[in-house]
Amino acid sequence: MAQLGGQPIFIMKEGTERTRGKDAMTNNIAAAKVIAEAVRTSLGPMGMDKMLVDQFGDVVITNDGATILKEIDVQHPAAKMMVEVAKTQDSEVGDGTTTSVILAGELLKRAEKLLQQKIHPTVITEGFRKAAEKAVEILEGMSIKSGIDDYDGLKNAAMTCMSSKIVSESKDMLADICINAIKSVAEKDENGKWIADIEKVQIQKKEGNSMDDTHLIKGIILDKEVVTPGMPKSITDAKILLLQSALEIEKTEFDSKLQITSPEQIQQFLDEEENMLRTMVQKIEKSGANVVICQKGIDDMAQHFLTKASIMAIRRVKKSDLEKLSKATGGMIFNSLDDVTEEKLGYAGLVEERKIMNDSWIFIEECKDPKSVVILIRGGTELIIDEVERAIHDALCVVRDVVEDQKIVGGGGAPELETAIQLRKFASTLGGREQLAVEVFADSLDIIPKTLAENAGLDQIDVLMKLRASHQKGNKFAGTNLATGEVVDNMMSVGVVEPTVVKIQAIKSSTEATSMILRIDDVIAGAKSAMPPGGPGMGGMGGMGGMGGMPPPGMGGYPGMM
After folding, report:
1. Cα angle at 129 between 128 and 133, to 5 degrees?
2. What are the structural domains, with CATH classification, of the chain?
3. pLDDT tens digits, 442-477
4. Residues designated catalytic
């Protein structure tokens, strides 16, 4: 609202909230800090879990940062940016979500003190950018070479990732499963670089048994059953025909009329249909196939002939599953039975229908060189199975990161502490106020080893001083044994390993989110639409374009926290 000659002029809609300058910044920083505090206690092997209950009463128990923030219904726009940090971290590298959010929260907390010293946000963000670039350079420099052939490096990285999860008791066995799965699907691209697509690792879940019964299947599981009870339920040395077309008599695409004048003609018509279906099955027999997996339907008569020929058949399989089967068994997907040849059939050591709990599933196992595999997760309850799935997803991502990036660092807060020490030296080479911002960035990195110590019930300051002393002696991977509180000069020697790319991504995503929040000095939140007369939906196109009475999406309710 502006004043002109005593007459108020309304520029924005009545009820619009506007927060400017210092108030806007303080508000945004406070919201971001609340999000960071919400996940802080879940960091590390001694971190606690969160129980999240949604509006329908569904329960999620987890300590995965991305899952916690996804399940919390965050309203504040600055807090939503913090949730985006976790999502970015999760989609890019699959691990380090809690680290990235805690780091962003700490950067904002310390930046607030610089703002109080009248340092301009642009100077702070520029200092943070330089510090982040230098931090990435430091991390790259301190990394150790690893890769697909470094089994110990892969296993330690996977076990470190799972040590903070509910599955930590079984992390040794699960790490082996994840490594074998990634090694199966990893392929070299045209430049000779390893690429591991975790989409090719299918995850199936079923309650029952225990977490330790989780296992890797070198093949595929189909949530289907054999089409008729008379067919064989188990076939060894299976030659698999993958078929996109239906094993049915095709209907004509145009309207047609048959004139039948005698009962014999009906019989001839039926006999011809039967002969066509028999011919189809004979072509399958001739090819040597003893398992048929069809994307579409299989006629009852065709099922009869297949049963007589002792051929197992599965129908209405999803196209995506058919493509995975092609990668797993090495078979070609056919459109026509005329093209089928024995050498283009898929192979599996065993195809079997099994009952898991109350469902029948088809297991296609023991494939020769599968480029698509399945991890079958078992567990006592649905909540445990869901958390095991999240842990396995993170471990798969971590193994993939090491295979593709081929660099690892010691974990347990060691890389952050070493980076902070080197950043302080770098800050002394800068002039002006940017030096303060770089020092603040270095101080913020200390939050990771401090939080790990705090969650383990240790004294933060005491731990930090001991660690700094060890790092000053040249132990770049010095960290804390959280069980005893003693300093370990090399975290790698005790198997605490993390992919470098996870640490780099955490620094990049947290710095970008921090810079974006710090540069906001004006928040304009649109007013909620008034309810039209007669209740929602009665006001024609009034309010929100026919959505009468609904509040606008986005920033309604600002500046409430969560």
Report:
1. 115
2. 12-145+410-523 (1.10.560.10), 151-218+378-405 (3.30.260.10), 220-369 (3.50.7.10)
3. 999 999 999 999 988 888 899 899 999 999 988 888
4. 64, 97-98, 394
